[in-house]
Each structure stands twice: as C-alpha cells, then as structure tokens.
C-alpha cells in the first residue's frame, strides 16, 4: 500500500489564526496599556492651563496657537522615522527613550523662563510622544494575531482615551492649588513612571 506523501512542514503556509500566541503577549498588552494610560494622563494634564501659562509670558493669542502647533508638528515629523528606527534598533529603546525625552522636556517646560524656551520644550515633548506612541502600536501589531488584533487595539485605544479624559480635570485642579507650572512637573513625573 503506497504511503501518503505530505509536503515538507516548511512549505505549509500558516495563517495568523493557526499560529500560537507569543509567550507573555497578554502581559505585554497590559504593560503597553498601562504605559499609554499614564502617558496620556500626563499629556492631557497640561491642556487646560496651556493658554493661561503661555499668556503669562506676555505673548499674543497667535503665539499661544504656535505653542499648541509645535507639539503636533513634532509628532508629524517623528512618526515615520520612529517606525523605521524601531525596525532597526528594536522597540524597547523607543518605548522607554521617548518617554524619558518627554519627561525631561515637561520638567523644563515648567521651569521655562522665556516663551521661546517653552516652544522648544513643547516640540521635544511632541518628539518623545511620537516615538513612544508609534512604537507602542508597532509592538501591539507584533504580538497580535488574527484572533486578538481587534481586541488588543481597542484596549490600547481605550487606555489612551481614558488617560486623555482624566488628565484635564486633574491638571486644572493641580493648577488651582499649586500654580500654572505645577501640571508640567506632574507631567514629567507621569512620563517617567510610564518609562519605568
């Protein structure tokens, strides 16, 4: 009786659905959720006081708009290079390094003596934020399969939105108690904790 011939194992295509989940992938998902939650609380802490803080330097409303724009422009400029860099040097340096840059820049924003310094430090915050956010999404894609990709992405987005929603209320409360610079110091601490 002739034996059935099976193709070599390496030639059998395996879809994501057949591939076993990577070890500890759930732990990585929760770590990334915690990181983005803490980071977004920090980022949104400063949003309610940004115009008032900026105007304390005696600048116009147009200059305040430029301050907000600096963060966004930095994110646009860094997003694509961050993805490429993550492929070359790995995910962890950008996940941690991006948040450390954000932490230092937030601290310096709270200590700024001139408005142009505040613009530079906000730009640096945007760079750090882009490096971390882009790399977190890449990391999620790395560990997700067809079965859990949607769930992982929605959990990540939920953490991001929850942090963004909580931050402004906390930032306004802290600013009322301790002044307009204090939310930047809390932001620096939150970014540092997220890096850790």
Instruction: Compute the CA-based radius of gyration.
Output: 21 Å
Number of strands: 0
User: What is the count of DSSP helices, taking H or I runs of 4+ residues?
Assistant: 7
Helices and strands: which structural class?
mainly alpha
Give the biggest sheet. Answer: none
* Mean pLDDT level: 85
Give the termini distance in whole angstroms.
Answer: 64 Å
**Runs with pLDDT <50, length 5+?**
2-17
**What portion of the residues fall into strands of 2 or more residues?**
under 5%
Order of SSEs, N→C?
HHHHHHH
What would the principal axes of the Cα set say about the shape?
Answer: globular
> Which bin fits the share of residues in helices?
over 70%
Question: Could you give a quick summary of the protein structure above?
Answer:
By secondary structure, the chain is mainly α.
What does this protein look like?
The chain contains seven helices and no strands. The protein is mainly alpha-helical. Helix 1 runs antiparallel to helix 5, helix 1 packs parallel to helix 6 and helix 1 runs antiparallel to helix 7. The N terminus is likely disordered.
